[in-house]
Design a protein that fits this description.
There is one protein chain. By secondary structure, this protein is of the alpha/beta class. It has 17 helices and nine strands. It has one domain: Alpha-Beta Barrel (TIM Barrel). The strands form two sheets. A five-stranded parallel beta sheet has the order 1-2-3-4-5. The chain has a four-stranded parallel beta sheet with strand order 6-7-8-9. The chain binds adenine and zinc ion (ZN). The site of zinc ion has 6 residues, from loops. Keywords: Cytoplasm, Hydrolase, Metal-binding, Nucleotide metabolism, Nucleus, Zinc.
Length: 357
Amino acid sequence: MCSCEAKTHQCLLELPKCEHHLHIEGSLSPSLLFRLAAVNNISLPKSEDDSSFASAEALESRYERFTSLNDFLHYYFIGMSVLITPSDFESLAYEYFTRAHKDGVHHAEIFFDPQAHTSRGISYATVVSGLVAAQARAEKEFGLTSKLILCFLRHLSAEDAEVTYQEATSLGHFSNGTVAGIGLDSSEVGFPPEIFRETYESAAAAGIRRTAHAGEEGDSTYISRALDICKTERIDHGIRLVDDENLLKKVAKDKTLVTMCPLSNVRLRCVTKVGELPIRKFLDEGVRFSINSDDPAYFGGYIQDNYCAVQESFVLSLKDWKFIAEGSIEGSWCDAERKKVLLEKVEAWALSWNGTL
Ligand code: ADE
Ligand code: ZN
């Protein structure tokens, strides 16, 4: 858990959180990675090629030196190659939910990358069955509700994305709620969202929720194109929104949720420090956003670490945090009844911490 000594740590720990931007494959810790590689007989790159895989410690320290999104993705795709069975996916997700629960997460909407698994012979059904089993355990044991968001890898073709979409559709996973929505991730620059326009149009017509990574490394037009062409309801990262005042005002007016990932943005060098992020600007302009961990095993922090990093840089008030927490709930894809319960928890939190921040 976040071990910062800030006076505000406990207050933020108790703040009821929703997490909307978490790649489940990005919660694979080096220790679990090495354990599963041994169990599943997966060979990792040999030291002569890349000494980062010499040990879990060596890998941890390589993760502190990412130079870009693509540099990170190289390790991310190697890492997930150790995930083979439904039980591997269940362990991975259950480990994440356990940690998220300790960090005060009550509702999580998690991304998964089916193409990164089907392309190496692991079936879509294997991935989803493991994740669903972990979701059921987390709800039963912790009262933590969750949703799955199926992401398309934007460095692969639109046809490949469509095949994945059709597989989930044919299994009834969108209509029966197994998968709540679609997203778009992986290398951003050079792969604008409109490449996937047709799949997004089908999803919109079928009432399937839609989000996309945009404005992480790409400029603000990636955000406007995701919204205007792919009709996304959310924007993941969205930090380049600051470069287009009109777009920012529209996002605020439409209450589009922006899922921010502060520690990720620093690790991937989108900004040099958390204080550079447009968090004060978003609050002043009424942009609805949540704070998330993205790939916590790779970026040195889970959700509470991200909350504390934001507080350290911006010294937010209780009113600011209440706005963030309420926006996170309103922008979630859970039903109205669940939102009401979560909003009441935030109200109780604000009363008990009144005068603290
Ligand atoms: N996949 C996992 N993490 C990602 C990120 N931060 N951006 C794009 N794709 C990702
Ligand atoms: Zn992400």
